[in-house]
C-alpha cells in the first residue's frame, strides 16, 4: 500500500498515528464492491479514529524513550577463512589456487574488518509522545490529539519521523441535522 510522490513510494498507513486508531475493519469481496465500487474490488481497510465521549473531559499524555539494537548479527567468515575456502573450491575443480599460504597468513594476522559494525548503529534512540484532549456533552463531542515519533534506524542513514495532529468534532443540532469535522495533518520523513 504505497503512494508515489516525486518518484518516492510512501506507505500511507505510516502517516497515521497508531494512538489515534479506535478500530480497523477489513471489507472484502461483495461488501467492499457494493460500498466502494470497482475501487473496492481487492478489498478495503477502514480505519476509524477515536472520538470524544459525552459526559467527561479527558486530557491524556503517553510517551516513551528508549534505545534499539540489532538483535543478532550474522556469523561471517573472516578474510583468511574465505581465502582458504576459495582455494579449496578452485583445487576441487582443477584450477590454480588464487591465494598463497603467506597471503592467507597475512589475512589472518590483519584482524579483518567488521562490515556489520560499519553498517549498523548500536543503541539507536527511539521516542514517542502523544497528547490528547477529548470530551463532549449531550449534543457535541470533540477529540484533539498531537503526536511526535522519532526513530533512528539500526542501519546507519535510516530514520523515521512523524508529526501528527488530528481534530474530530461533531455537533447534533437536531435529530435530522448533524455537523462534523474530521481533520488530520501528518508530516512523515523516512530515510
TrEMBL record:
<keyword id="KW-0813">Transport</keyword>
<dbReference type="InterPro" id="IPR023997">
    <property type="entry name" value="TonB-dep_OMP_SusC/RagA_CS"/>
</dbReference>
<keyword id="KW-1134">Transmembrane beta strand</keyword>
<dbReference type="GO" id="GO:0009279">
    <property type="term" value="C:cell outer membrane"/>
</dbReference>
<keyword id="KW-0812">Transmembrane</keyword>
<protein>
    <submittedName>
        <fullName>SusC/RagA family protein</fullName>
    </submittedName>
</protein>
<dbReference type="Pfam" id="PF07715">
    <property type="entry name" value="Plug"/>
</dbReference>
<keyword id="KW-0998">Cell outer membrane</keyword>
<dbReference type="InterPro" id="IPR039426">
    <property type="entry name" value="TonB-dep_rcpt-like"/>
</dbReference>
<comment type="similarity">
    <text>Belongs to the TonB-dependent receptor family.</text>
</comment>
<keyword id="KW-0472">Membrane</keyword>
<dbReference type="InterPro" id="IPR037066">
    <property type="entry name" value="Plug_dom_sf"/>
</dbReference>
<dbReference type="InterPro" id="IPR012910">
    <property type="entry name" value="Plug_dom"/>
</dbReference>
<feature type="domain" description="TonB-dependent receptor plug">
    <location>
        <begin position="7"/>
        <end position="44"/>
    </location>
</feature>
Amino acid at each position: 500500500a504505497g503512494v508515489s510522490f516525486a518518484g518516492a513510494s510512501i506507505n500511507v498507513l505510516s502517516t497515521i498515528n497508531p494512538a489515534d486508531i479506535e478500530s480497523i475493519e477489513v471489507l472484502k469481496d461483495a461488501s467492499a464492491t457494493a460500498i466502494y465500487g470497482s475501487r473496492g474490488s481487492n478489498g478495503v481497510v477502514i480505519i476509524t479514529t477515536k472520538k470524544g465521549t459525552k459526559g467527561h473531559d479527558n486530557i491524556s499524555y503517553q510517551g516513551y524513550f528508549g534505545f534499539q539494537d540489532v538483535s543478532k548479527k550474522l556469523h561471517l567468515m573472516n578474510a583468511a577463512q574465505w581465502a582458504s575456502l576459495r582455494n579449496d573450491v578452485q583445487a576441487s575443480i582443477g584450477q590454480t589456487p588464487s591465494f598463497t599460504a603467506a597471503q592467507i597468513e597475512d589475512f589472518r594476522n590483519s584482524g579483518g574488518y567488521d562490515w556489520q559494525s560499519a553498517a549498523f548503529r548500536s543503541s539507536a534512540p527511539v521516542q514517542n509522545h502523544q497528547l490528547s484532549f477529548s470530551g463532549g456533552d449531550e449534543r457535541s463531542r470533540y477529540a484533539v490529539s498531537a503526536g511526535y515519533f522519532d526513530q533512528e534506524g539500526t542501519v546507519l542513514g535510516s530514520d523515521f519521523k512523524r508529526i501528527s495532529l488530528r481534530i474530530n468534532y461533531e455537533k447534533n443540532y437536531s435529530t435530522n441535522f448533524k455537523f462534523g469535522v474530521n481533520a488530520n495533518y501528518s508530516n512523515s520523513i523516512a530515510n
